[in-house]
Predict the structure.
Amino acid sequence: MTELLCEIDNLDEAITRFDEQIQEYSRPFEEAIQRLDTIPGVARETAEIIVAEIGIDMSRFPSADHLAAWAGVAPGNDESAGKRRSGKTRPGNKPLRSALTQAAHAAAHTKKTYLAAQYRRLAGRRGKKKAIIAVAHSILVIAYHLIDRHENYHDLGADYFDKRRPETTAKHLIKRLEALGYTVALQPQTA
């Protein structure tokens, strides 16, 4: 038992040493890490992984879509002669992809955020796994733009998709009410 406790103490010391080294190495990138930390679902450790894997020089990637394809979170597009075959993603950068999917899971469980709304919107139609990859893709695209433009994160809100096309949202809700047996008549709201 004493040997096991000593081994646990040694491992705790090693973890502390590695954490200090990580903080020392990430000091020049602190601004980018703090920006990425503001994205829902992305904690400091995930932000450190993103910066460690892609750096802060976004000129290496012609666009955010190229970065997403390199990371392995872009949807595949295997289409020939009008037939869609596979939409499977590429393997990509495994540590980055793993960190992004963990961040996507965390973002999907946040409240009143754009990323959570995106997850709920896609999970019902496409399935939970594809929705998680889509949210991971969005997180990486957001990270690309935050680093490239030196801007802070601004959330679009949970009602972004409803506000984008209000007539489609109204039509969808009317169909749901009619399916429940209600008759709906719309009247414009007066100011």
Q: What stands out?
A: The longest strand covers residues 79-80. The mean pLDDT is 89. The two ends are 75 Å apart (CA to CA).
